[in-house]
Amino acid sequence: MAITLGPNQYGKAEVRLVTVQREGTVHHLKDLTVSTSLRGDLAATHLTGDNADVVATDTQKNTVYAFAKEAPVGEIEDFALRLGRHFVGSFEHITGARILIDEHGWNRISGHDHAFSQAGSEKRTTAVTVQGDQAWVVSGLDDLVVLKSTGSEFHGFPRDEYTTLAETNDRILATAVTARWRYQGDGIDWATSHAEVRRIMLETFADKHSLSLQQTLYAMGEAVLKEREEVAEVRLSLPNKHHFLVDLSPFGLKNDNEVFYAADRPYGLIEGVVLRDDAEDAGLAWHTLAAF
Ligand SMILES: O=c1[nH]c(=O)c2[nH]c(=O)[nH]c2[nH]1
Protein backbone atom coordinates (compact mmCIF):
# COMPACT_ATOMS: atom_id res chain seq x y z
CA MET A 1 0.00 0.00 0.00
CA ALA A 2 1.27 3.46 -0.90
CA ILE A 3 -0.02 6.64 0.64
CA THR A 4 0.35 9.91 -1.22
CA LEU A 5 -0.56 13.53 -0.75
CA GLY A 6 -3.61 14.56 -2.77
CA PRO A 7 -4.77 17.99 -3.85
CA ASN A 8 -4.15 20.68 -1.26
CA GLN A 9 -4.31 24.39 -0.79
CA TYR A 10 -3.82 26.71 2.12
CA GLY A 11 -4.34 30.33 2.98
CA LYS A 12 -5.97 32.86 5.28
CA ALA A 13 -9.73 32.61 5.45
CA GLU A 14 -12.06 35.53 5.98
CA VAL A 15 -9.72 38.49 6.34
CA ARG A 16 -12.00 41.36 7.32
CA LEU A 17 -10.99 44.51 5.45
CA VAL A 18 -12.69 47.90 5.64
CA THR A 19 -11.30 50.83 3.68
CA VAL A 20 -12.19 54.50 3.78
CA GLN A 21 -11.29 56.44 0.66
CA ARG A 22 -11.45 60.21 1.03
CA GLU A 23 -12.56 62.54 -1.71
CA GLY A 24 -12.42 65.86 0.11
CA THR A 25 -14.99 65.59 2.86
CA VAL A 26 -16.85 62.78 1.05
CA HIS A 27 -15.85 59.31 2.21
CA HIS A 28 -16.23 56.06 0.24
CA LEU A 29 -16.48 52.84 2.20
CA LYS A 30 -15.55 49.29 1.17
CA ASP A 31 -16.30 46.39 3.48
CA LEU A 32 -14.82 43.11 2.31
CA THR A 33 -14.17 39.61 3.56
CA VAL A 34 -11.18 38.20 1.67
CA SER A 35 -9.99 34.60 1.65
CA THR A 36 -6.75 33.56 -0.03
CA SER A 37 -5.71 30.02 -0.95
CA LEU A 38 -2.39 29.13 -2.50
CA ARG A 39 -1.55 26.00 -4.46
CA GLY A 40 1.65 24.60 -5.85
CA ASP A 41 4.50 22.34 -5.00
CA LEU A 42 3.82 22.03 -1.29
CA ALA A 43 4.71 18.40 -0.71
CA ALA A 44 7.71 19.24 1.50
CA THR A 45 5.79 20.89 4.30
CA HIS A 46 3.17 18.13 4.30
CA LEU A 47 5.66 15.27 4.21
CA THR A 48 8.59 16.59 6.24
CA GLY A 49 7.54 19.90 7.75
CA ASP A 50 10.07 21.81 5.64
CA ASN A 51 8.44 25.23 5.29
CA ALA A 52 10.89 26.76 2.80
CA ASP A 53 8.13 27.18 0.21
CA VAL A 54 5.27 28.04 2.54
CA VAL A 55 4.19 31.67 2.20
CA ALA A 56 2.79 32.07 5.70
CA THR A 57 -0.93 32.63 5.93
CA ASP A 58 -0.04 35.61 8.13
CA THR A 59 1.92 37.07 5.20
CA GLN A 60 -1.07 36.48 2.95
CA LYS A 61 -3.27 38.42 5.36
CA ASN A 62 -0.75 41.27 5.56
CA THR A 63 -0.57 41.41 1.77
CA VAL A 64 -4.33 41.95 1.62
CA TYR A 65 -4.06 44.95 3.96
CA ALA A 66 -0.95 46.38 2.27
CA PHE A 67 -2.48 46.11 -1.20
CA ALA A 68 -5.55 47.96 0.07
CA LYS A 69 -3.26 50.85 1.03
CA GLU A 70 -1.00 50.82 -2.03
CA ALA A 71 -3.83 51.33 -4.53
CA PRO A 72 -7.58 51.79 -4.26
CA VAL A 73 -9.32 48.44 -3.80
CA GLY A 74 -11.66 49.16 -6.70
CA GLU A 75 -13.94 46.38 -7.90
CA ILE A 76 -13.60 43.13 -5.99
CA GLU A 77 -12.76 41.23 -9.18
CA ASP A 78 -9.81 43.55 -9.87
CA PHE A 79 -8.59 43.35 -6.27
CA ALA A 80 -8.78 39.55 -6.34
CA LEU A 81 -6.89 39.40 -9.65
CA ARG A 82 -4.18 41.70 -8.25
CA LEU A 83 -3.74 39.50 -5.19
CA GLY A 84 -3.83 36.22 -7.09
CA ARG A 85 -1.32 37.36 -9.70
CA HIS A 86 0.97 38.74 -7.00
CA PHE A 87 1.21 35.44 -5.12
CA VAL A 88 1.65 33.35 -8.28
CA GLY A 89 4.16 35.82 -9.74
CA SER A 90 6.26 36.28 -6.62
CA PHE A 91 6.93 32.79 -5.30
CA GLU A 92 8.39 30.11 -7.51
CA HIS A 93 6.65 27.20 -5.83
CA ILE A 94 3.26 28.87 -5.76
CA THR A 95 1.65 28.06 -9.11
CA GLY A 96 -1.97 28.82 -8.37
CA ALA A 97 -4.11 31.04 -6.20
CA ARG A 98 -7.77 31.19 -5.44
CA ILE A 99 -9.05 34.44 -3.99
CA LEU A 100 -12.60 34.70 -2.65
CA ILE A 101 -14.06 38.08 -1.79
CA ASP A 102 -17.45 38.94 -0.34
CA GLU A 103 -18.47 42.59 -0.40
CA HIS A 104 -20.87 43.77 2.26
CA GLY A 105 -22.91 46.74 1.09
CA TRP A 106 -23.28 50.05 2.90
CA ASN A 107 -25.64 52.82 1.83
CA ARG A 108 -24.77 56.44 2.39
CA ILE A 109 -27.11 58.04 4.92
CA SER A 110 -28.89 60.59 2.80
CA GLY A 111 -27.19 63.98 2.88
CA HIS A 112 -24.19 62.77 4.90
CA ASP A 113 -20.63 62.58 3.61
CA HIS A 114 -19.28 60.04 6.05
CA ALA A 115 -22.17 58.16 7.64
CA PHE A 116 -23.59 54.90 6.33
CA SER A 117 -26.23 52.26 7.06
CA GLN A 118 -25.64 48.61 6.31
CA ALA A 119 -27.45 47.50 3.17
CA GLY A 120 -28.75 44.22 4.63
CA SER A 121 -27.83 40.60 4.25
CA GLU A 122 -27.12 40.67 0.51
CA LYS A 123 -23.48 40.28 -0.49
CA ARG A 124 -21.63 40.68 -3.77
CA THR A 125 -19.10 37.87 -4.29
CA THR A 126 -16.23 36.89 -6.49
CA ALA A 127 -14.01 33.84 -6.79
CA VAL A 128 -10.88 34.36 -8.85
CA THR A 129 -8.64 31.46 -9.79
CA VAL A 130 -5.16 32.21 -11.10
CA GLN A 131 -3.09 29.37 -12.52
CA GLY A 132 0.19 30.35 -14.16
CA ASP A 133 -0.70 33.24 -16.45
CA GLN A 134 -4.34 32.27 -16.82
CA ALA A 135 -7.22 33.57 -14.71
CA TRP A 136 -10.90 32.74 -14.29
CA VAL A 137 -13.51 34.92 -12.65
CA VAL A 138 -16.77 33.69 -11.16
CA SER A 139 -18.83 36.43 -9.55
CA GLY A 140 -22.17 36.39 -7.88
CA LEU A 141 -24.40 37.43 -5.06
CA ASP A 142 -25.65 35.84 -1.87
CA ASP A 143 -28.90 36.26 -0.03
CA LEU A 144 -30.87 38.53 -2.33
CA VAL A 145 -34.28 38.02 -0.73
CA VAL A 146 -37.26 38.44 -3.04
CA LEU A 147 -40.98 37.75 -2.83
CA LYS A 148 -43.95 38.02 -5.16
CA SER A 149 -47.41 37.88 -3.67
CA THR A 150 -49.10 36.53 -6.79
CA GLY A 151 -48.13 35.32 -10.26
CA SER A 152 -47.03 31.93 -8.95
CA GLU A 153 -48.75 28.55 -9.27
CA PHE A 154 -47.78 24.99 -8.43
CA HIS A 155 -49.87 22.06 -9.63
CA GLY A 156 -49.75 18.96 -11.77
CA PHE A 157 -47.26 17.15 -9.56
CA PRO A 158 -47.68 13.41 -8.90
CA ARG A 159 -49.83 12.35 -5.97
CA ASP A 160 -49.14 9.22 -3.95
CA GLU A 161 -50.14 8.02 -0.49
CA TYR A 162 -47.71 10.53 1.08
CA THR A 163 -48.86 13.60 -0.85
CA THR A 164 -50.80 16.17 1.13
CA LEU A 165 -49.80 19.41 -0.64
CA ALA A 166 -52.79 21.17 -2.19
CA GLU A 167 -52.54 22.30 -5.77
CA THR A 168 -52.55 26.07 -6.10
CA ASN A 169 -52.88 28.61 -8.87
CA ASP A 170 -52.13 31.57 -6.65
CA ARG A 171 -49.42 31.45 -4.03
CA ILE A 172 -46.64 33.55 -2.59
CA LEU A 173 -43.26 32.83 -4.18
CA ALA A 174 -40.28 33.86 -2.08
CA THR A 175 -36.61 32.97 -2.15
CA ALA A 176 -33.14 34.14 -1.17
CA VAL A 177 -31.12 34.10 -4.37
CA THR A 178 -27.61 32.73 -4.32
CA ALA A 179 -26.18 33.20 -7.80
CA ARG A 180 -22.78 32.55 -9.35
CA TRP A 181 -21.94 33.47 -12.89
CA ARG A 182 -18.83 32.65 -14.85
CA TYR A 183 -17.27 35.37 -16.96
CA GLN A 184 -15.68 34.96 -20.37
CA GLY A 185 -13.78 37.39 -22.58
CA ASP A 186 -11.71 40.47 -21.77
CA GLY A 187 -12.26 44.08 -20.84
CA ILE A 188 -15.26 43.40 -18.63
CA ASP A 189 -16.75 46.31 -16.68
CA TRP A 190 -17.27 44.37 -13.45
CA ALA A 191 -19.47 46.91 -11.71
CA THR A 192 -21.83 47.40 -14.64
CA SER A 193 -22.01 43.70 -15.35
CA HIS A 194 -22.85 42.88 -11.74
CA ALA A 195 -25.53 45.56 -11.59
CA GLU A 196 -27.06 44.41 -14.86
CA VAL A 197 -27.08 40.71 -13.99
CA ARG A 198 -28.75 41.57 -10.68
CA ARG A 199 -31.31 43.80 -12.41
CA ILE A 200 -32.13 41.15 -15.03
CA MET A 201 -32.60 38.47 -12.37
CA LEU A 202 -34.88 40.72 -10.31
CA GLU A 203 -36.97 41.76 -13.31
CA THR A 204 -37.33 38.19 -14.50
CA PHE A 205 -38.35 37.00 -11.05
CA ALA A 206 -41.00 39.72 -10.94
CA ASP A 207 -42.25 39.46 -14.53
CA LYS A 208 -42.18 35.74 -15.24
CA HIS A 209 -45.45 34.05 -14.35
CA SER A 210 -44.23 31.05 -12.40
CA LEU A 211 -45.52 27.50 -12.63
CA SER A 212 -42.64 26.27 -10.47
CA LEU A 213 -39.56 27.75 -8.84
CA GLN A 214 -37.60 25.51 -11.21
CA GLN A 215 -39.17 27.35 -14.17
CA THR A 216 -38.32 30.69 -12.56
CA LEU A 217 -34.71 29.57 -11.98
CA TYR A 218 -34.28 28.67 -15.63
CA ALA A 219 -35.93 31.89 -16.81
CA MET A 220 -33.63 33.99 -14.62
CA GLY A 221 -30.50 32.28 -15.93
CA GLU A 222 -31.73 32.33 -19.53
CA ALA A 223 -32.48 36.09 -19.38
CA VAL A 224 -28.98 36.81 -18.06
CA LEU A 225 -27.33 34.76 -20.81
CA LYS A 226 -29.47 36.37 -23.51
CA GLU A 227 -28.59 39.92 -22.45
CA ARG A 228 -25.01 39.60 -21.17
CA GLU A 229 -22.56 38.06 -23.60
CA GLU A 230 -19.71 38.30 -21.07
CA VAL A 231 -21.51 35.70 -18.94
CA ALA A 232 -20.86 32.10 -19.98
CA GLU A 233 -22.86 30.24 -17.36
CA VAL A 234 -25.15 30.95 -14.39
CA ARG A 235 -25.59 28.78 -11.30
CA LEU A 236 -28.52 29.43 -9.00
CA SER A 237 -29.48 28.11 -5.61
CA LEU A 238 -33.00 29.08 -4.63
CA PRO A 239 -34.50 28.08 -1.30
CA ASN A 240 -38.29 28.01 -1.56
CA LYS A 241 -39.27 30.18 1.39
CA HIS A 242 -42.68 28.65 1.95
CA HIS A 243 -45.61 30.82 2.96
CA PHE A 244 -48.44 28.59 4.10
CA LEU A 245 -52.05 29.72 4.21
CA VAL A 246 -53.28 29.76 7.79
CA ASP A 247 -56.46 27.77 8.37
CA LEU A 248 -58.83 30.38 9.76
CA SER A 249 -61.91 28.11 9.61
CA PRO A 250 -61.80 27.33 13.38
CA PHE A 251 -62.57 31.02 13.86
CA GLY A 252 -65.35 31.00 11.27
CA LEU A 253 -63.17 33.08 8.93
CA LYS A 254 -62.34 32.49 5.28
CA ASN A 255 -58.71 32.98 4.25
CA ASP A 256 -58.77 34.67 0.84
CA ASN A 257 -55.03 34.33 0.27
CA GLU A 258 -54.35 37.07 2.80
CA VAL A 259 -52.99 35.50 5.98
CA PHE A 260 -49.83 33.35 5.79
CA TYR A 261 -47.46 31.56 8.08
CA ALA A 262 -43.85 32.15 6.92
CA ALA A 263 -42.01 28.92 7.71
CA ASP A 264 -38.22 29.09 8.01
CA ARG A 265 -37.60 25.34 7.76
CA PRO A 266 -37.71 22.91 6.19
CA TYR A 267 -37.54 24.60 2.82
CA GLY A 268 -37.47 23.31 -0.72
CA LEU A 269 -34.06 23.88 -2.29
CA ILE A 270 -34.10 24.37 -6.02
CA GLU A 271 -30.69 24.47 -7.70
CA GLY A 272 -29.54 24.51 -11.28
CA VAL A 273 -27.10 25.61 -13.92
CA VAL A 274 -28.06 27.48 -17.09
CA LEU A 275 -25.46 27.41 -19.86
CA ARG A 276 -24.86 28.65 -23.36
CA ASP A 277 -23.65 26.04 -25.83
CA ASP A 278 -20.94 28.29 -27.32
CA ALA A 279 -19.37 29.22 -23.97
CA GLU A 280 -15.64 29.37 -23.48
CA ASP A 281 -14.27 26.35 -21.67
CA ALA A 282 -14.71 26.58 -17.88
CA GLY A 283 -11.09 25.66 -17.22
CA LEU A 284 -10.44 25.91 -13.51
CA ALA A 285 -13.19 28.49 -12.96
CA TRP A 286 -15.30 26.35 -10.66
CA HIS A 287 -12.45 24.29 -9.33
CA THR A 288 -12.64 23.61 -5.65
CA LEU A 289 -11.06 20.92 -3.58
CA ALA A 290 -13.92 18.56 -2.96
CA ALA A 291 -12.77 17.67 0.50
CA PHE A 292 -12.54 21.26 1.70
O1 LIG B 1 -41.96 25.54 -7.14
C1 LIG B 1 -42.01 24.48 -6.50
N1 LIG B 1 -41.25 23.43 -6.88
C2 LIG B 1 -41.26 22.24 -6.22
O2 LIG B 1 -40.54 21.28 -6.60
C3 LIG B 1 -42.09 22.13 -5.09
N2 LIG B 1 -42.33 21.12 -4.21
C4 LIG B 1 -43.21 21.61 -3.30
O3 LIG B 1 -43.65 20.96 -2.31
N3 LIG B 1 -43.56 22.88 -3.59
C5 LIG B 1 -42.86 23.24 -4.71
N4 LIG B 1 -42.81 24.40 -5.41
Automatic annotation (TrEMBL):
Sorted UniProt keywords = Oxidoreductase, Purine metabolism
Principal EC category? oxidoreductase
What SUPFAM superfamilies does its record include?
Tetrahydrobiopterin biosynthesis enzymes-like (SSF55620)
Pathway assigned in UniProt: Purine metabolism; urate degradation; (S)-allantoin from urate: step 1/3
Q: Which InterPro entries match?
A: Uricase, Uricase_CS
Active-site residue list: K12 (charge relay system), T57 (charge relay system), H242 (charge relay system)
Substrates-to-products reaction catalysed: urate + O2 + H2O = 5-hydroxyisourate + H2O2
For biological process, the GO terms are: purine nucleobase metabolic process; urate catabolic process
Q: What is its EC number?
A: 1.7.3.3
Q: What does this gene product do? A: Catalyzes the oxidation of uric acid to 5-hydroxyisourate, which is further processed to form (S)-allantoin.
| NCBIfam families hit by this protein | urate_oxi
Give the record's family classification.
Belongs to the uricase family.
Output this protein's name: Uricase
